[in-house]
Specification:
With about 240 residues, the chain is α+β, with helices and mostly antiparallel strands. It has 2 domains: about 140 residues, Jelly Rolls, CATH 2.60.120; about 80 residues, Arc Repressor Mutant, subunit A (Orthogonal Bundle), CATH 1.10.10. The chain contains 8 helices and 11 strands. The mean pLDDT is about 85.
């Protein structure tokens, strides 16, 4: 079934073609049917809140398509974007298992299809299907390792320019020769970049201007072009 946002609505997990190696829902057909029986599929517009930091966990979401921004906010109201979730990721899993409040806010940054599983149903299926429990452990392990790397980069990076360079490189397409220019078509706003590196919008604007002067990047409308990947990588070290 075609959705208003231009992507195919997945009516059942059994017919999903978006599953890849690291997808939480990469189950055997038997377990897939068990999960499908307790799942609720829905389509969300951009800017929708799936859950909010501090909220009592109702359950977890599996991101079937689209992108979701995960963030946390300080008492002073400063927002730090922790990551951008991709298709196949489990959202709110740790809170749903532990029963503690969601530790972050999940907001769609594109139209998305999500699959919701209530906490009680999730716990039941994890107890009856060891395959689900193993996938949950693997997903939480990847989440922990990613958080560890992000903390290392955020705290130990030598400068804001190094953090920004690392962020731009992480958004660049992979597999291209280093001599080729790399185009970031869905580049974030200056505010979003600042929230990703724990800085201010004014600092990001100044740093991008500096990178342009050094001919490491250039801007073509909404597209950011990495002209010198090696030069950016040198800032990260």
């Amino acid at each position: 079934m075609r959705a208003p946002y231009g992507f195919e609505i997945i009516e059942s997990c059994m017919g999903c073609k978006s599953v890849h190696e690291n997808s939480f829902c990469r189950f055997s057909p038997t377990v897939q049917r068990s999960m499908d029986s307790v799942s609720y599929h829905s389509v969300m517009p951009s800017g929708a809140l799936l859950f909010v930091e501090g909220q009592t966990p109702r359950g977890m979401y599996i991101l079937c398509s689209g992108k979701v921004k995960l963030s946390t906010t300080s008492k002073e109201g400063k927002v730090l974007i922790l990551k951008q979730a991709e298709t196949g990721e489990a959202l709110g899993l740790s809170a749903a298992i532990s029963g503690t409040n969601y530790e972050m806010t999940a907001e769609t940054c594109t139209p998305c299809q999500v699959n919701f599983i209530g906490r009680r149903d999730l716990m039941k299926v994890m107890q009856s299907e060891s395959e689900v429990a193993v996938h949950a452990a693997q997903s939480l392990s990847r989440e922990f390792q990613g958080a560890y790397r992000d903390i290392h980069d955020l705290v130990l990076a030598r400068s804001s320019s190094g953090k920004l360079a690392r962020l731009l490189l992480s958004c660049a397409p992979q597999g291209l020769p280093e001599s080729d220019e790399q185009r970031l078509h869905s580049v974030m706003t200056h505010e979003e970049m600042a929230q990703r590196i724990g800085s201010s919008r004014e600092t990001v604007t100044r740093l991008l201007s500096h990178l342009k002067k050094k001919r490491l990047i250039r801007l073509e409308g909404a597209t950011l072009v990495i002209r010198d990947r090696t030069g950016l990588e040198a800032l990260v070290v």
